[in-house]
Q: What sequence folds into this?
């Protein structure tokens, strides 16, 4: 399989389809092998809504993709610490899965127009059976992490997909910083759907969901009971920069650890690394340099945020960060350099935005609340 002119791409997800489109535009033949029977693999999670503080203009200019057609800029973005709300700069939202509104559908149609061949229901057990130079874009797949020697954790959590019956909430993004997860809990509303995810790379007992449900009711008034449990979900866990070339194969997306170490955002990493993977087919060294350049500060960001997340009472620390943008804004801006495609002004504007018109008294009252949460 695979010829001089043909490139094999493993995985019809975000990174794989972006890479295929770029290669097909250059006139190469591309064959995509996908284990799922249809579009939107990774089925336990999809349809799902993902939020991202992507720098849309820079990403569109750098990739040459019409990213504005794939993402919706949200209206409201709120972070809750406990039940206290912090304003955020709105994020972009993107739908994943096989519905007509999903980015997967858009990329698939673009790729098909360019003549990319898709083989659904084609599961590859051993990626090393594929020709060297193939692109491995298998997302969070444990056997691929093993094959390419990538350390990985087993995440746990709960997710929920529900119909949204309140159109005024369309485009809203919510996140919760709370002691019941050291990673994240978030919710998005788009395309008539509500999506919620409570996730941790550490264990996630049922009591965590009980507590999250209480916060959900107190903050948004939402009550849902059809939660799905996520168990043993592989997640790359390394401080090392994302990988591109391993044993003659080209890694892209989550398979190569292209995930933001600060907040677990993976959408921009999948898109950018998909483009770089396509470039690596003809110029591997140049592409590897480019990925290295984009991820220059990855390790610093990863070590810093891992240490913060592991601190006892880290939720309280985040409240201090949000309460003192003058001190922490510049730090977040610098850290953002470790994350390609990331809107670096986002953090600064998030924390500044919350404090518009707030006096010292209010901030001190925030600080007092730190000790009661
Ligand atoms: C539930 C959930 C919520 C998330 N929320 C956010 C968010 O809000 N914001 C954000 O920025 N990021 C989020 N992320 C992360 C982000 O979505 C991912 O990092 C990104 O989509 C990864 O893209 P990818 O192309 O690497 O993999 P995917 O898009 O997952 O594609 C991988 C494809 O490879 C296929 N495959 C796997 N193994 C094989 C095999 N052996 N043979 C053939 N095919 C195979 C799979 O079926 C799948 O179709 C979330 C991830 C999940 C799972």
A:
């Amino acid at each position: 399989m695979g010829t001089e002119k043909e490139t094999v791409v493993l995985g019809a997800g975000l990174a794989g389809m972006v890479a295929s489109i770029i290669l097909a535009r250059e006139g190469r033949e591309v064959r995509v092998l996908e284990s799922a029977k249809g579009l939107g693999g990774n089925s336990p999670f999809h349809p799902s809504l993902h939020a991202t503080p992507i720098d849309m203009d820079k990403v569109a200019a750098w990739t040459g993709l019409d990213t504005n057609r794939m993402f919706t800029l949200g209206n409201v973005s709120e972070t809750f610490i406990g039940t206290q709300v912090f304003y955020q700069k709105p994020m972009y939202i993107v739908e994943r899965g096989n519905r007509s509104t999903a980015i997967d559908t858009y990329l698939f149609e673009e790729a098909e127009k360019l003549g990319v061949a898709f083989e659904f229901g084609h599961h590859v057990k051993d990626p090393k059976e594929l020709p060297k130079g193939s692109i491995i874009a298998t997302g969070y797949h444990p056997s691929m992490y093993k094959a390419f020697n990538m350390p990985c954790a087993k995440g746990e959590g709960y997710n929920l997909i529900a119909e949204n019956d309140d159109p005024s909430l369309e485009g809203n993004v919510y996140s919760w910083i709370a002691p019941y997860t050291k990673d994240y809990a978030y919710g998005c509303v788009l395309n008539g759907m509500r999506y919620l995810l409570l996730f941790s790379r550490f264990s996630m007992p049922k009591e965590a969901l009980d507590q999250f449900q209480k916060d959900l009711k107190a903050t948004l008034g939402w009550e849902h009971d059809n939660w799905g449990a996520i168990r043993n979900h592989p997640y790359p866990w390394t401080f090392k920069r994302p990988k591109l070339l391993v044993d003659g194969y080209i890694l892209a997306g989550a398979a190569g650890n292209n995930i933001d170490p600060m907040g677990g955002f993976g959408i921009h990493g999948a898109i950018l690394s998909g483009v770089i993977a396509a470039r690596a087919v003809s110029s591997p060294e140049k592409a590897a340099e480019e990925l290295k350049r984009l991820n220059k500060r990855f390790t610093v960001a990863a070590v810093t945020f891992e240490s913060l997340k592991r601190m006892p009472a880290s939720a309280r620390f985040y409240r201090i960060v949000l309460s003192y943008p003058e001190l922490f804004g510049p730090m977040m801006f610098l850290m953002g350099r470790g994350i390609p495609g990331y809107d670096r002004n986002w953090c600064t504007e998030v924390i500044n935005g919350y404090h518009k018109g707030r006096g010292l008294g209010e901030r001190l009252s925030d600080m007092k609340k730190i000790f009661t949460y």
